[in-house]
Design brief:
The protein is mainly β and about 180 residues long. The chain contains 2 helices and 8 strands. It has one domain. Helix content is about 10%, strand content about 55%. The longest helix is centred in the C-terminal third of the chain and has 18 residues.
Amino acid sequence: MQKSIEIAIDHGKYYYEVGLLVPFIVNGARTVTLTPLSATGGERRISVVEDSVVRPALALSLFPWGRRQARVSAWGPFRCGDLFGVQLGVDLDLGDPFNRIYVGGVLEPVAGLSVNLGLAMVKGQFVPSGYAAGTVLSVEDTFTPDTRYMPRLYLGATVTTDVLTTIKGAAAEVRTSAGR
């Protein structure tokens, strides 16, 4: 009969990680366009177009209660800090990183891979005062849409370098199990 001894090792905690956020933003693009009207001598109609988009972002995920290091999964023994956090992010387009700002919640069941839900503040175009969508403009009329932030819901996934450590650890476990 063989005896085994188990020693618990505390690897510490980490409180933040940086990753690539891939969000789906509901109605995350809004443009005001001038649509030419046929056979009118150059008249144009003001149109507003909204569309849902996927735009990558740079995200900082914060774990206020601390996430245990060297853990592949948040399950067993369960700790709230291993699973939940908050997220702040900016657009990956560094020419205008504040074109989209993200604030949301993090659910990270596997180290390095999380699901996110939150609010995106997205710059969009709006019809300026004095005009309305559907208004017909003559050739001489000038028109410049207003740009301002609009709140939009996003659902996303974030990947960090921890996912590589998780894959490496899982592969080592599979090799060890196969060798038994």
